[in-house]
Amino acid sequence: MQRKWWLYPLLASLVAGGLAAALLAFAALLAIPNLPSLEALTDYRPKIPLRVYTSDGALIGEFGEERRALVKIEAVPKLMRQAILAAEDDRFYSHGGVDYLGVARAALANLSSGGAREGASTITMQVARNFFLSSEKTLTRKFSEVLLAFKIEHYLSKDQILELYINQIYLGQRAYGFAAAAQAYFGKPLEKLNVAEFAMLAGLPKAPSRYNPVANPKRAKLRQQYVLRRMHDLRYIADADFQAAQRFPLTVHHDTQAFEVKADHVAEMVRQAMFEQYRDSIYSSGLKVYTTLRRADQEAANLALRQGVLDYDRRHGYRGPEGYIDIPGTPSNLEELLEDALSESDESNDLLPAVTLEASPKELKAYVRGGETIVIPADGLKFAAKALSDKAEGKARLRRGSLIRVRKDDKGNWQIAQLPLVESALISMDPSSGAVRALVGGFDFNRSKFNHVVQAWRQPGSSFKPFIYSASLEKGFTPATVINDAPIVLDPFDTGGQVWEPKNFDGEFAGPLRMRTALTKSKNLVSIRILQAITPQYAQDYVTHFGFTAERHPPYLTMALGAGSVTPLQMATAYSVFASGGYRPKHYFIERVVDARGTLLLQAKPQIAGEEGSERVIDPRNAWIMTSMMQDVVRFGTAARAMQLKRNDLGGKTGTTNDQVDAWFAGFNAGLVAVTWIGFDQPRSLGGAETGAQAALPIWMNYMGKVLKDVPESILPMPEGITVVKVDPHSGARSGNGIPEFFYRENLPDDNDASAKIHDDAKDQLF
Q1: Which residue of the set 88, 197, 339, 591 is catalytic?
Q2: Does 529 reside within a domain?
Q3: Exactly one of 144, 462, 470, 731 is catalytic; which is it?
Q4: pLDDT tens string 425-455
Q5: Of 61, 593, 597, which Cα lies nearest the Cα of 289?
Q6: Given 78, 92, 166, 313, which residue has the most CB atoms within 10 angstroms?
C-alpha cells in the first residue's frame, strides 16, 4: 500500500494551525479581562469648545483646544456617511468588527507591491484605536485593537459606532469630527455641503496632514477624486452626479477660524464675558452662547464696512507691492517656491495674496496660493496703472516676483488690490431694548484685534452737535430760534487752551439762521453760540443723560464741535435716546447661554423703552423734535445722499473732525440705530475731501439699505405737549403765511420776534 506522503505536511499544518489558534485563544482569554471599559464610548463626553452664535443660529466663533461639533447619526447627511464608507470601510454594515475579506485583499495588494502599502483597519477598529490605544505599529497593539473591535461590536450598534467615529476622528486644522471639519475647511455646517465637499472630507482620515486641502491642495484633490470614484463604483452616486462632483471647484478656507458669519470681535467679547463667569471650564464644557446679532444684519455690516474701506483706499491710490521675491528663470520647483513665498501672507477677507509672474499695463499674470494662476486684464489694473508704467522705479514697480493682493469684483472678474491702512467700525442697535444687531470692530480681526466699537476713543466732531441742540431745547431754544452764523473770536478761557477763531467747514458765513437750518447745514458758529448761551457747564452735565462721561467732555466751547472723546458704542446708545422717544437703553449682546445638554443657564432680560424699569433720560418732546430736525439733515442737509434709500423715516448727523482725522455718521429710525466711523489708528488726516458724508455715510447707507429693505417705515408718534405753529422762515416769528414748526406748548414764539421772549438775556451772544 502506497503511503500518502502529502498527509504529513497537511497534518503538520493542521497541528500548527491548531496550536496557533489555541495560543491566540489563550492570549485572548488573558487579554480580554484587561481590555478597557467601554464607558468612554457609552457615556461619550468629549471636550467641546465654547461656541458662539447669532440669535438665529449661525456660528460666529468657538474657543477651545479642540474644534469639535457633536452630531447625531440621523443628522449626518446620507451622502456624507456613504462617502466615509466608500473611503474607509464599505463593508462596515456587514462585517463583525474585522473585515476578513478586506484583510485578504490588503495582504494580496501588499505582496504584489512588495511592501505594506494598504491597511485593513475597519471603522470599528479605528474607533478602538482612537479611544483606547496608541498609534504604534506593533503586533500587540493590533491584537488588542481586534479584540476591542469585537467587544465594541458586541455592545454597540453599527449606527452608534459610526456616530462615534464621525464625531471623534481627527481631520486636521484642529478639527475633530466631520461637523467641525466642515466648518474648518468650508465655513459651513455639515448639512450644507455637497457631494464634492463630502468626498474631500471623507478622504482626510487616511492621512489628515498629507491630504489637508489647505496645506496640500493637489494631494487633497487626488484623494477626493479617489473617494468620488469609489462612491460611483459602489453606486452611491449616479453618473451625472459623479461627473458634476469631479468638476466642482472647491473653495477651501485658508482662515482656520472660518465660520458661517464673520463676527470675530463679538465672539471675543463673548469669550471674555464667559471667562469672567466660568473661568477655564468654558474651553471644554460645551457652552453655547446665542448673541443678539442677526445674521442678515451682521453680513450686511461686514460687506458695507469692507466696501467702504476699500472704496476709500482706492480713492487714495496704489502704494505698490507688499514685497518681492526673486524667481530665477523657470525653476523645476517653481510652485514650491511660490507657495513658500506666500506661506506667511494670510488672506484678509477676500484680499488674496499672490505672486506676479508677468506684468504689463495690458495684462498681469499672477500665482494665487493653492495653485491657481490668474490673469488680470487692463480693466482690473487701472488702480495700479502708475506701478505698471515705465516711470515706476524700485519697490513701487510691479514686476515678476512682486508680492501683491488680488480680489474678485462684483462680477467675478479679477482685479489688483491692496491691504488698506485705514480702519473703520460699525455698530447697530435696537433703540428700544439695547440689543446689538451688528458689530464690526475693524477691517480684519486677524490683522488687528483692537475693537474700535468699544475701545476706540475718538473725537465725534459735528455728530455731537445734536446733544448740544437737545440741551438748548431745555433752556428755551426752539427749532425756530434765529442765531447768527457770523465770525467769532474766543479767548483761551472759553476754549481751555488758546485764542480760537473757529470757521464753518466751507469757510463761509450765512448770517442769521433758524436753529433747524443751522443743524441741517452743520453750521459750526451757530453751535458755538448756542453753547455760549446755555453754558458749557450745563451742557457737560446734560450730555451725561445720553451715557457720555463728563470728564471726557471738558466744559469749554470746543465741546460744541465735538472736541471731547467717545466710542462708537457710546454714540449708538446716545442716538438711541432720540430714536426711542427719550429712553436710554442698556446695551447687551448676549441673548442666552445653554450648556452642552441644552439646559438654559442665562437669559437676557432687557428693559424695553416705555416698560417698567426703563430709564427715561430726556423729555419725549425733546427727542421727537430733535428727531424731526435730524430727519431734515437727511432730507436736505449734509446727509442728503441718504435719500437714495427712498425712505422718509431716517434721521441722523454727519461728523468730521479738524483736518478730517475722523469721519462719522450716526443715523436711525424708530426701529434701528447705526453708527459708522472711519479713521487711522495713529490719528492723521483722511484727506481734504474725506468728510463724514464722503467716507462714513456710504457705509451706513450700504448697511441700512440692505437691512431695511422691505421693512415698513417706522416713525414715533408725536407726543403730547407739542404744538405746531407757522413761522416766518427768516425771522422765526409767527406768520400765517409761514412754514410749520414744532414747539413745546409752553414755549411758543411771539408774533413779532420768536427769540425776544426767550433770549433777552443772551442777545449779545446770539446775534
Answers
A1: 88
A2: yes
A3: 462
A4: 999 999 999 999 999 999 999 899 999 999 9
A5: 593
A6: 166
